Amino acid sequence: MSTITDAGTTQLVVAALLGIAVVVVLIAWAKWHPFLALILGTATLGLVAGAAPAKIVTSFTTGLGSTVGSVGVLIALGSMIGALLTQSGGADGIVQRLVTGVSGSVLPWAMAGVAALVGLPLFFEIGVVLLVPIVLLVARRTDVGLLRIGIPALAGLSVLHGLVPPHPGPLVAIDSLHADLGLTLMFGLICAIPTVIVAGPIFGNFIAARVPVAVPRAAVAVGAGGVGSVGSADLDADRSAGGPGNPADLDADGVPDRAEGRRRNPGFWPAVLTVLLPIVLMLARAIAELTLAEGNDVRSVLEVLGTPVVALLFGVLLAMWSLGYRAGFDRRETSAVIGGSLPPIAAILLIVAAGGGFKQVLVDTGVGNVIADAAKDASINALLLGFLVAVGIRVATGSATVATITAAGIVAPLATTLDKPTVSLLVLAIGSGSLFFSHVNDAGFWLVKEYFGMTVGQTIKTWSVMETIISVVGFGCVMLLSLIV
């Protein structure tokens, strides 16, 4: 493949390091928005690599456009399902049904399960805002303890956010590495189960005995303290979009005070089945491709239905009826909810798009090939390389999105030498690395700290360690799967 520069290996490595350094410094120190930081980082990378400015612009816009075209539509459709789930009261119904139907000793496990289920179509921050009032209420009315309930809920949301499409992070990596979405989804769910168990109920029970945290009297509004996991840059916009569980709408017990929302609850099973439909269709496609011969009629149908954009579109259409109509929304209200789901994801789409442009310049300058060749010469496992690069960028910037995009761009040339299952595992390795050790430069850190009324030290001992466990256990599962597939 031709490149846009004739620079040597040393110059390309220096260009990559300086480009990444610009992104890190602008996000972590100057507190710039990742969209602008990625644009300037891309310019630095291209200019230091010796590429002509016009070619840098062309390469960047090409990557930006292709990323939005492939990933942006999926993010938008997923956001629509999430908005209908929250605004109809369906998410509240799922949480209340599962949490109130179990005994105290099983509550941490139930909370992890409900967080994972609700987290399938929702961005991390929206899931936190939705679940925290329930966590506070349950902790206040039982003797289970705040962290024993809260940590499993946070683990369920975070694992889904980092490992399972259609969340933006995994989608970006899938697009960059040309991985099979259905296969990645199947492997992601396999890895998610043990990861949620270890980082959720098991770690929650362990840390609750060592870090005493009292239940705060009321949830408080939280501002974004920086740029963190996917959507964190637009945290305030997400939280002001009217999602259920907004702290401004809590009653004295910390429960969403929306009588109309509770009255309009569309029902437990309609909400659950709507959430699961796109996932089931994409999994069915992956299974069909693995088990049925090419040209088989059933496989052909499932290949169409399981195409991500088709599966999510069917999910939106079903949600309009099962969550909108059944909740009592008329056509105008349903349209308003769907339309209202799009503005809050604007920042997410811009970050993802700029990351796609950054990745494309990495590829077009030949940086990716240099790193891939070096990794092969040094016999560095591709999965380990993707994980370590994502860890480094995550710790430096606090942004899981930037970590995922950068790592995927760097290891993209390596992906062309791997078989289809291994490429899907590479996506998950990068996703695992992007969750490593959330700390003070991550908005998610401050969100959890304020909602749970913890000190910075307590938040590091609980939330930051939990994120690190998710990262390490998730990567461990990826490596185990690589020995099998």
**How much strand?**
under 5%
Mind summarizing the main beta sheet? none
Give the number of helices: 22
Average pLDDT number: 83
Number of strands: 0
Report the C-alpha radius of gyration, rounded. 22 Å
What distance lies between the first and last C-alpha atoms, to the nearest angstrom? Answer: 30 Å
Indicate the percent of residues in helices. Answer: over 70%
> How many domains would you count in the coordinates?
1
Order of helices and strands: HHHHHHHHHHHHHHHHHHHHHH
pLDDT < 50 stretches? 219-263
What sort of overall outline do the alpha carbons produce when their principal axes are compared? globular
Structural class: mainly alpha
Report on this structure:
The protein has 22 helices and no strands. The chain has one domain (9-484). The protein starts with 8 loop residues before the first helix and ends with a helix. The protein is globular. It is 73% helix and 0% strand. The longest helix is centred in the N-terminal third of the chain and has 35 residues, at 53-87. By secondary structure, it is mainly α.
Topology:
Blueprint: H1 9-28, H2 34-48, H3 53-87, H4 90-100, H5 107-119, H6 124-141, H7 146-163, H8 168-177, H9 181-208, H10 235-239, H11 259-263, H12 268-291, H13 297-305, H14 308-325, H15 331-340, H16 346-364, H17 367-377, H18 382-397, H19 400-415, H20 420-433, H21 443-452, H22 456-484
Helix pairs in contact: 1-2, 2-3, 2-16, 3-8, 3-14, 3-15, 3-16, 4-5, 4-6, 4-12, 5-6, 5-7, 5-9, 6-7, 6-21, 7-9, 7-22, 8-16, 8-19, 8-20, 9-12, 9-20, 9-22, 12-13, 12-14, 16-19, 17-19, 18-19, 18-20, 19-20, 20-22, 21-22
